[in-house]
Amino acid sequence: MLEDDRVIEESILRNWYSGNAMPQLAGHSLLGGGNPMRWMIDRTLAPAEIPSSYIEFYSGDRLPGRTIAHHDAAVEYQADMPEYFEVAPSFPFNRSDSSYRQVIRVRRDFVRKIVWQQVPALTDRHVPSTLFLTNGREIQFRAIRFDSAGVNLLAGRERMSFGFQELAELHFDRESYWDTHLKELAILFPGGTVESSDRQRLVQWETADGLVATTSVQRIDAESHGDNNNSDRWSHGIQPAWSLDTIWVACRSTWMWRSWHFDTVPLFRLPLTESREGAMFSRGGFAARINRGVLGGTAGSGQRPVGWSLGVMAPSRLSFPLPEWAVGFQTSVAIDQAAHDRGCIQGEVLFSWEGKPKFASETLVGSSQVASSGNLRIDDVPQNAELILAADPVYEGRPEGADPFDIRDMTNWLEPSLLLDQQTLREKIRARTTGTILAWHDWKLENDLSQLRFANTLRRVQYPYESPSWRTTVAAVDEPLRLTIKKKIAPETKYLEIVTAKFEGPDQPEISVRINGIPVMTAPLQNTNSNDHVHSPPPYLINVTPFAGSEATIEVSQSVAQGDLSIDWRGLHFREQPSFLLPVLETPTQNDVNKMTTLAGEPGNVILRDDIRQLSRPLIETPDGEWIQIANFDSPIEIRERPEPGQFRQLRFAVSKTGKGHALIRFLHENEEDSPAIYAIGTRNAGQGIIELNPRSFDNKKEIDENWQVITPDLYSNFRELDITGIAVKSVGESSCLWDQIYFAGTAWYLDRNLSVNPTNSNWDNWQKRSEELLPGLTKATLQVHRPGKPVRPAVMVDQGSGILAMLGDDDWKPGTEMEVTRHDGKTFTAKQLGKDESSQFGLLQIVSIEQDGGWQQYNLSSRTEFDWQYSHLIFQPGEEPGQLAWDICRPLTYDKRVVIVTKPHTFTCEVGAIAVDRDHQFSGFVTEVAPNGQPVISIARPLVEKWHDLKNQQN
User: Fold this and answer.
1) Exposed (0-12), middle (13-18) or buried (19+): which is 251, by Cβ within 10 Å?
2) What top-level branch of life does the organism fall under (predicted)?
3) Does the domain spanning 767-952 belong to CATH 2.40.10.120?
């Protein structure tokens, strides 16, 4: 049946064998063009009986199968998941080549009732907030809560609990139909628009197995198993809004497809209430049936087949909720074919706020007569309005020969359809779209929705824990997408983890993060590897410890990308530890060290090292001779070939030996005696069963230089599957070992997400020695600037010949303004302000009459265009005593190329205006602010280099 009421038929359905093809029948396109199908039926099949167990959804969709488990809303495999049920379907639903899960996950917020054991009297009925037990007991409840395999009820003042095996049917409270309908459309048509307009349709499958499932044209996939011209070889992958998984349906099992434009609602999808007041001989039953005759079986009237219907026994008065944006309605009414040429009714369509029927049919006798309402316009719908379909048995004035009273007055409302205002509907869908992106919950979208483009994107992955499914994705069109949240970050929180995905295009757009206005990350989005979850891009990781325990405003943005590339937002999570890395030794404390013992349980005599020499401090030093257990795991660490989230394969650790000898690292597990798992570093004579890594690292040492080795072995390749219960280390060769940065990861690629100074930099980047060389010169290069009414701030000499100093300025900086500056020896000079870069607030000063008396030292501004997160900075400012500097070596915690937050100095309280020096002995930047927990925020000095000429010559 096409939209223009024309019926076409053919013995072969064509062309629907791939995801980018649309079905054709008798040469007519069924889901595209200007005259698509309203419904299509396979007359070789028959509709299913009501299944013995199923889930029914708010719209009348039905999933046959047994509900076996419940899951609360949570994060699963790094992605936000809604509350859902697991259903074991009673029909084949997977692709032929799939070894994926054997359940379908359905969203709790779309479920109307769950049936474990069908109660025939409740078919097509909904009794709100009621539980029906297998023993026949009926319980109305005030509140319900689920555990994994049962329910907990509050009924009156009594609390009750039941396992799923005790339940026959569970009917949920009556939710607002139209709110849920808009949520469904926002998932199926994100943003309220679809290109092209002829694809803005919904399609419903009803199968011979009892499945009734509705989705949009965009969320349909197809594949052929052999002959593309044989529809019996096709399967269609569909994903209704209520399903978290794609459901694969064999074409040969589909009895009927129904289709309608997104601004149309077939009335069988709306909740109904029925009154049969006035019934006489039929008052003992005959409740309304959906898409069936009131006596069962398919509804039929007149000579024309129908795609959907409501079957009632007159007298019947059906009421349906109407939204304020309803604009039209149409239906036909007739007596069911089961009455043959008998029965007598009159059908009426009424609107609850109007005094008389909008449509009244003539008196109909027998099933051959069909009365059409035509298109009924609806104007000015008030709140709480209802549409009413009344079937009157015409007790008085019946035509001669008609059945008396209400005998055989079986009535069918044929293809009743409600029309909604399209523009209003689009606006309401658009407004609800952001709420369907679960990762954005609790976050505020700062954009106007017109600046974004939403889409349905098929996430084509084939992971052990995830198969292809449709996701709502978003592209920033005119300006970056911006999400913000203001919250107190828990003291124990270390990271913000951002989980996103894209499947095409270059490494763009970029994801950027600011905390309290401070840039903390900018990184390009990389493509997801569809077939290898292990090597797909890991989440982005932002260290939030500088703000832990404080209220912070966080902004996450997605840049505009060429081609409007859509991004799948999967999670924005605050975590104590990364989901994809397991730090074993990262920032140990003295309490951690105190727990480290020998394998025999004796004190381990481990030393916590926190000296400047070690860039990634703090770390541990273990003595020679004994195995020292440095980690113990309550739940074993699972090493697997293809690790899922929470499992691992790679290890990274750093080790240094203070003298000759070698080091051992051992992975404790249950079968150690038969299959030891030990690495040796720095020897070729480790012994049988020990895997040797970097065999020459330590053996040939001639002096104690503490050179680091950073090693990333593949645990699975070396030891196969392993369940690690602890880690022990051993130093061999009359000297201790240093250990640092021990991490487990799924792949070495994941380790790159962790911002950490590489210990091997200590092998040549000796800050202990470097600081001794730098500090005398830095003392002579640093001056204190006395600003009227403001704290003293440091400046550094960057051009001794001209007496030019660089410093962090203020908003009231004015070229030509004079002020006093004091040198390390207490001598005071007059300096005037030159130019200031407005974006960075960095400014230049010039000593009016500089004396070349040997009391100065010049250092250059760094020419680097961006910071390097792998290296530390020397941060300094004038000390409490004249002529002294307060200083420390600080490593990056966050990185955004031109702004980094570094670790809090151990030896002094850092102030705004402090100065940073890089590994090249150049001024790398200035501390522009201090994070709530004392960590300096360094902004790169590059703006002074880029604008040097203009700033130097700006006098007033």
Assistant:
1) buried
2) Bacteria
3) yes
